[in-house]
What we know:
It is built from 14 helices and no strands. The protein has about 300 residues and is mainly alpha-helical. Helix 2 crosses helix 4.
Amino acid sequence: MPSIGMLLPFTTNSVWVWAFLLTAFFGVFICFFEISIYVKVLSVIALLNVFLSRAPVLSQFAYMEFVACLYLYILCLRIDNWRLVRMVLSLVFIVNIILCVMQYSGLDTVTNFGVSKGLEKSGVFGNPMQFRSYLLVLVALLLQGSEFVKVYKREIVVLLCMVIFAYLIVHQAFIKLIVYRVPVWTETIRLSMLHPFAGWGLGVYKAVFNSIAHLPKDVAQEGCWLTTHNDWLQVLFEMGIFGFGVLVAYAVNLIKKCEGATFFGACLIGFTLTVHFPMRTIQIVPLLILFVAYIERIQYVSSK
């Protein structure tokens, strides 16, 4: 009897092709679901983007991840018991805080492998900045459905402003924003205009930007820019004006549906999308999808 490998009518490379084609089929099939028109258009643009990409293999893999996120979004739209979701997220929040305290005191030798002390390893993240972004999104979700927010609306607005101010000043984020981020953002926009309509391709920023960007010496020495630290501009770079336009239009449409705690949560997430890269952090992406699905769900229920 021949081995199973000999019976397969395709090579390893063709397996990848078939995997992509199957994912593309599911991506197109999503357009027949009862979901937001913005999501449908964005899924079509993402598929077309793969064929116009400057690094097709990277874009194919990124597209597979994109389709997986779309299906997670569809599943989250079917959630009815949001109270249970908040309970689980509260537990996740508490666990991360405990891990931070243990890491800061040097007691935790598991999640940071005993390599470092302090907040170099924050929670389940290897980067304090990613952890802060994670907390912002998590808090945005925990605010939903809270009677406390409805009662102390003005106080929460003041607290929100104080948190952002403290982040910009205490962590010297404002200085880093001006010195390091703005030049990268400017260069990202300039390079985006070289391929304004189709973009450079899904998921190619980390492979392309550093090799073609012209950055000031001190900014270049800051590190390897795998993300632009601004998810909006990274979408512009990778998906062009059309993808960026649809994403912004979808965000505006979601904000119009927000009020009270949901609006506060949207502000927190909008802030972290602008100065961090939560859409590129695997632990945060499900939380972002959950928040978007929550907005869509409560709007659907209210319309009924």
